[in-house]
Write a structure and sequence with these properties.
OB fold (Dihydrolipoamide Acetyltransferase, E2P), 1 helix, about 55% strand
Length: about 190
C-alpha cells in the first residue's frame, strides 16, 4: 500500500478513506490567491456507492487501498440479491444487494464473466465490460414512414433491459450495447 501525497490522488485511483475503499472520480489541484494548494476530489464509496467531495490540503496524504481483483461468473438475480461464483471455483459463491449492482447486472446474461474487486478478501463491487453483445428478445414491427421520432424504437433484450435501437433491428438480432451509457452502438448479427 503506497502513501499518496495530496497531488497524487488522481481519478481511477482507489484510496482508503475512513477505513473504506473509495474510488477517485475526479480531482482538481488549485491554489487560491496566496493560499497553499488544495486538491478538490469527488470520491465514490465502493461499499455503499455514495459520492462525497473531499479537499486534500498540501500537508495531507492518503493510503492507496489494498484491493484485489478476481474473475467471477454471474449466476442469477432474485428480488433482493444478485449471485456470483468465483471462476473455476463454483463453491465460492457470494451475493450483492440488488440495489448495489442493478445498473451493471441489467446488461449481464447468465454465466457472463465479470471482474470483482475485493477489499480485505470481501467482495465489494463488480466491473463489467464496456460493450456487451445481447440478443433482442422482443422488437415491435417497423412502421414505414415512422421516422418523426428520430427513427428509433424501444426493444427488450434477452436480459430484460430495454433500449432504443434503429428501426431496422428485429427480434433475434444480436446488438452491441455500451454499458456505460446504456445505448445501442451497432448490430452484430442479423437473423
Amino acid at each position: 500500500m503506497a502513501i499518496l501525497s495530496y497531488n497524487e490522488i488522481l481519478p481511477k485511483t482507489i484510496i482508503d478513506y475512513n477505513d473504506e475503499p473509495y474510488e477517485v472520480l475526479s480531482s482538481h489541484v488549485f491554489r487560491m490567491q496566496k493560499r497553499k494548494p488544495v486538491n478538490q476530489t469527488r470520491l465514490r464509496s465502493l461499499v455503499s456507492g455514495s459520492v462525497i467531495e473531499i479537499s486534500f490540503h498540501q500537508n495531507e496524504t492518503a493510503t492507496e487501498a489494498d484491493v484485489d481483483r478476481m474473475r467471477a461468473v454471474y449466476l442469477y438475480s432474485s428480488s433482493s440479491e444478485s449471485w456470483f461464483a468465483e471462476e473455476g471455483n463454483p463453491k465460492n459463491r457470494f451475493a450483492f444487494p440488488v440495489d448495489a449492482v442493478r445498473d451493471q447486472v441489467q446488461w449481464l446474461a447468465q454465466n457472463s464473466v465479470v471482474e470483482v474487486l475485493t477489499y480485505g478478501e470481501k467482495p465489494v463491487t463488480i466491473t463489467i465490460p464496456v460493450k456487451v453483445d445481447l440478443a433482442v428478445k422482443d422488437a415491435p414491427p417497423s412502421v414505414k414512414g415512422n421516422t418523426v421520432s428520430g427513427g428509433t424504437k424501444l426493444v427488450e433484450l434477452s436480459t430484460g433491459a430495454k433500449v432504443n435501437v434503429p428501426l431496422f433491428i428485429n427480434t433475434g438480432d444480436i446488438v452491441r450495447i455500451n454499458t456505460d451509457t446504456g445505448t445501442y452502438t451497432e448490430r452484430v448479427e442479423k437473423v
